[in-house]
Amino acid sequence: MLRLSAFLALFVSFGLTGSSIVNNEQVVLVLDEDFEPLYNLNITYPHAIHAGLGNKIKPSDVSSPPDVYTHPVPTLRENETFAIAITDPDAISRSNPTKAEMCHWIVTFTIGADDDLPVIHLPMDFELPAGSIEDRNAAKLKPVELMTYYPPAPPPKTGYHRYVFVLLAPASGKDTPYPTKPKERPHWGYGKVRKGVRDWAKDNDLTPVAATFFYAKNKKQ
């Protein structure tokens, strides 16, 4: 279940903006150093659990997909494909990142001709539609869970893991082909340590426009 809307300022922002994210060593690993966010992200899990600004959350509190809000209201162009992704740069652990980055979630959505307002507003419920990628493109179906939600589950004795949310927009500012699905979750399918969302975004002509993160660890340390 996903609720992704553009809000003016109805919720407190839990995203990182400006120099706070550019200078934040906790997330710069998965983003370009010159990244400058355009929007804030507000991530809310069930039971009003907010994620962001590096707060610490129990894995049991993030077992279901969150609601995602962005603000301020973006200026969107028809047929642009956006994506929300979650990545873990600390798999298996920060000192032994042999599976980093780990892909935990990708949801894509397209702004179609029937969208009247320049805001992101998606249905609460979604499922992967039948048919080919081309069929989904033609129908402008939205949103699509490209990679199903894989709940954070840090292994025992691996310390805190960072779970980074990234909002991705078309890099060229034009309609782009439907993003490809990673071949597997570890390394986002690239087969090399530290490969991840940044590489996948570039291969799909997407660029980060917002980001935030939280920490989680196994209770057995």
Describe this protein with a few key phrases.
221 residues; mainly beta; six-stranded mixed β-sheet; four-stranded mixed β-sheet; 10 strands; 8% helix; disordered N terminus
Order of helices and strands: EHEEEEEEHEEHE
Q: Tally the beta strands.
A: 10
Report helical residue fraction: under 10%
Number of helices: 3
Mean model confidence by pLDDT? 75
Radius of gyration: 16 Å
Q: What percent of residues are in strands?
A: 25-35%
Which structural class fits the helix and strand makeup?
Answer: mainly beta
Give a short account of the largest sheet: 6 strands, mixed
Shape type: globular
Q: Are there runs of 5+ residues with pLDDT below 50, and where?
A: 1-24, 113-130, 136-141
How far is it from the N-terminal to the C-terminal residue, by CA? Answer: 32 Å
List the strand order in the largest sheet: 4-10-9-6-7-8
Overview of the structural elements:
Helix content is 8%, strand content 28%. It has helices at 19-22, 133-139, 197-203; strands at residues 4-6, 40-45, 49-51, 55-56, 67-71, 81-88, 102-110, 144-147, 161-170, 206-216. It starts with a strand and ends in a 5-residue tail after the last strand. By secondary structure, it is mainly beta. The strands form 2 sheets. The protein has a 6-stranded mixed sheet.
